[in-house]
Amino acid sequence: MKAKTRKGSIIKSLIGIILLLALSYVLSGLFLTLEDLLHMVDQNKSSRDVELGKARYEELVARGVPESYSIYSEEETSANPDLEVVKLYYFPADNAETKEYAIVLPGGGYFECDIYKVGLPCAATLNEMGYTAFVLGYRYGKYSSAYAPIDDLARAVEYITANADEFNVKTENYTIFGFSAGGNLAGLFGSKELGYAKYDLPAPATLSLAYPWININGKIELTGNCWQEAVTGVSQLIGNKYLLGKFFPDEVSKAAVCVQNHVDADYPPTYMMQGDNDFVVPHEPNAIVMAEALEKAGVKYRLKLAEGVNHGCGLGIGTTAEGWVGEAVDFWRSVVE
Q1: Which run of H or E residues covers position 120?
Q2: How far is residue 296's CA from residue 273's CA, in Å, rounded to a whole number?
Q3: CA proximity to 303, closest of 214, 195, 239
């Protein structure tokens, strides 16, 4: 009887130790994830310079520039009310010289579209460099459907091309700046299968991608932190839902929205910036994977891996990423000129 009691106590003790270790693992992972999240939030308060974009936008509207353009017709919008969220914001350069333009695609995981946080500041910065920029508010979340964001980007290029004289821009050699999910969108548009060629449009001269969500359905790597692995898993579910229209698409569809799978010798030259402390879109399965695909295909590219930088830094002001927009423009010019 005593032996059974002793054996039962040992088993209970072992179970208690296992539960304690499991709890410690979960709590330590949660602590590290919260620490990274707080770092990201604190970093992004100053690195994005939201006020720069807001001030430039208000200045342009005060000068008579429309608040936004609807790139779909009234008939199309009437037939599909979801199109009402699609807006094109025009940031004309102050000089009168006609130049190539840039389209800016905000991020938001395809469940939102952060126009004001990173889109407008990037456009304002491009204005300061003498370039006209457009910020595209594409369909997202409940307004989206299968490949709808790509349709919106294609329509934006068509609209700008059709109104090039009004916008005072050249129709060729444009670039696309994409942030996070916007980087995925830009990357897919750079492909023949899903992007510019499908819509009979000219290819972008370059892609300029900031912390791009390249490998949207990549294998979830075991990091030792269950919370960060959960972030990746949930992001994949949401991204697939609002880009493909399904939480659990087939393997072919999942592979199709991983940008690196579309890289060939004709893929647009690509500039990328990503932080090495990004736990939302880690650099190794995203920017690094893309760089390897570009290298293999012989496509010109440049990767700026910013030390200590987390996700969503926007312009990167006050971080090691600061100045990346200028570098992306220089890369663009090196291809065009």
Answers
A1: helix 120-128
A2: 19
A3: 214
Q: Which residues contact 38 (CB under 8 A, 6 or more apart)?
A: none
Residue 190 in any domain: the answer is yes
Looking at the 3D structure of the chain, how many domains does it have? 1
Residue 155 lies in a domain: yes
What whole-number distance in Å separates Cα of residue 116 and Cα of residue 95? Answer: 24
Query: For residue 110, which phi and psi values (nearest 5 degrees)?
Result: 70, 0
Q: Write the pLDDT tens digit of every residue in 190-205.
A: 999 999 999 999 999 9
Reported confidence tier of residue 233, pLDDT bands at 50, 70, 90: confident
15, exposed or middle or buried, with CB in 10 Å at 0-12, 13-18, 19+? Answer: exposed
Residue 168: inside a domain: yes
| Distance of alpha carbon 162 from alpha carbon 171, whole angstroms | 9
Model confidence pLDDT, tens digit, residues 84-97: 999 999 999 999 89
pLDDT of residue 256: 93
Kindly indicate the confidence band of residue 22, based on its pLDDT and cuts at 50, 70 and 90.
low
Domain encompassing residue 307: 47-336
Tens digits of residue pLDDT in 96-113: 898 999 999 999 999 999
Q: Where are the alpha helices (DSSP H) in 168-323?
A: 181-189, 226-244, 251-256, 289-297
Rounded Cα distance, 149 and 329, in Å: 24
Q: Is residue 77 part of a domain?
A: yes
- What is the dihedral sign for C-alpha 248, 215, 110, 65? negative
List the CATH number of the domain containing 268.
3.40.50.1820
- Predicted confidence (pLDDT) per residue in 98-151, tens digit: 899 999 999 999 999 989 999 999 999 999 999 999 999 999 999 999 999 999
User: Cα(5)–Cα(7) distance, rounded to whole angstroms?
Assistant: 5
Distance between CA atoms of 296 and 214, rounded to whole angstroms? 16
